Amino acid sequence: MDEYMLEINELRRRIAKLKFERASVTIIEELEAQLRILRSIYDSATALFATGETDRRLQASFRDRQLGNWTFENVYFYVYEQAVALEPDGHDLATMIWHHDYAAPLLESVAAK
């Protein structure tokens, strides 16, 4: 289990404990929103990383953009940076993160060459 899943699981445990203790609904809802966002970033990074494992164009573009080698940690950082730049405009941020196309900007730079 990587450090990202450890953080997600720790947040899950914290939420469960707060629910058991009948803590403030507002606090629980805020932590649940945070959990959804972390989970959406992790899932998106996992999907992009898996795609890039078989698509050398993604890996090459990643390196060309000075993002480092194709490692899960670097891909996670890339997805995280893309996700925090999204503007929710009243939409659910976690859903937007899940549905965002993280490969497109990388592949556009390959197609432009």
Architecture overview:
With 113 residues, the chain is mainly α. It has one domain. It is built from 6 helices and no strands. α2 packs across α4. The radius of gyration is 16 Å and the shape is elongated. The N and C termini lie far apart (38 Å).
Topology of helices and strands:
Layout: H1 3-20, H2 25-53, H3 56-64, H4 72-84, H5 93-99, H6 103-111
Helix pairs in contact: 1-2, 2-4, 2-5, 3-6
Entry summary:
With 113 residues, the chain is mainly alpha-helical.
- Rounded to an integer, what's the Rg over CA atoms? 16 Å
Structural class per helix/strand content?
mainly alpha
- Assess the beta-strand content as a share of residues: under 5%
What helical percentage do the residues reach?
Answer: over 70%
Cα shape: elongated
Number of helices: 6
- What is the overall pLDDT average? 92
Query: How many β-strand runs?
Result: 0
Report, as a whole number of angstroms, the end-to-end distance. Answer: 38 Å
Count of the separate structural domains: 1
Keywords summarizing the entry:
6 helices; about 110 residues; elongated; mainly alpha
